[in-house]
Design goal:
Elements (H helix, E strand, L loop, with lengths): L4 E4 L1 H4 L2 H12 L4 E5 H11 L5 H14 L4 E2 L3 H4 L10 H9 L4 E3 L8 H4 L5 E3 L1 H11 L1 H13 L8 H10 L3 H8 L6
Helix pairs in contact: 2-9, 8-9, 10-11
């Protein structure tokens, strides 16, 4: 199993396009993925107005089945001793520390400043940056993951261009641009 560990913030999990690509790359072992029940609760609570609860629960259960050791526990005692610009994000940093994360993947980089994370040997990365780095570790493996993610889209199916547009809409702008250069491989 990969040693490099990424804790995924709830705001990243709102997007199915991002979640699927992160899950697929983690499942094959490019990196180790972590989250917590608090993170699960946050993303599900934020999507409940957009999607049926049973659909959200199926997605959460599928994530847990795909990577059964991803859920961090025992981080709660760390929360009170942590300082971040938004106190509501302390549970994310606590879970990252307890889960041995090297990086917190988040869209809210300003909520996780370097000076708050560096004492713990953790950095924050936008999902676009994070996935570009994962692609750089093994291009062929990453492209196979992207192919699998696109192939799972059946209702409705997506062309390569539609898939790349979905990644771009999910704020994976750099990744979508890079994959456009090799779209014949997707």
């Amino acid at each position: 199993m990969a040693r490099f560990t990424a804790l995924i913030d709830a705001n990243v999990l709102f997007s199915m396009a991002i979640t699927d690509l992160i899950m697929e790359t983690a499942r094959i072992g490019i990196f180790r993925v972590r989250w917590s029940n608090d993170i699960h609760d946050e993303w599900t609570r934020n999507l409940i107005d957009k999607y049926p609860e049973e659909k959200i629960n199926r997605r959460r259960e599928a994530m847990e089945r795909a990577i059964p050791d991803a859920c961090v526990t025992g981080y709660e005692p760390l929360i009170e001793g942590l300082t971040l610009p938004d106190a509501k994000d302390r549970h994310v940093l606590a879970a990252a520390i307890a889960g041995g994360a090297d990086v917190i993947v988040t869209k809210n980089l300003k909520h996780f400043p370097d000076d708050a994370l560096s004492p713990f040997g953790i950095e924050a990365q936008h999902p676009d940056t994070f996935l570009i780095h994962q692609r750089g570790l093994s291009e062929q493996t990453f492209l196979e993951c992207a192919r699998r993610c696109r192939a799972r889209l059946k209702n409705p199916p997506k062309s390569v261009d539609e898939y790349l547009e979905a990644l771009q809409r999910a704020e994976l702008v750099v990744l979508a641009a890079e994959l456009t250069k090799v779209k014949g491989l997707l």
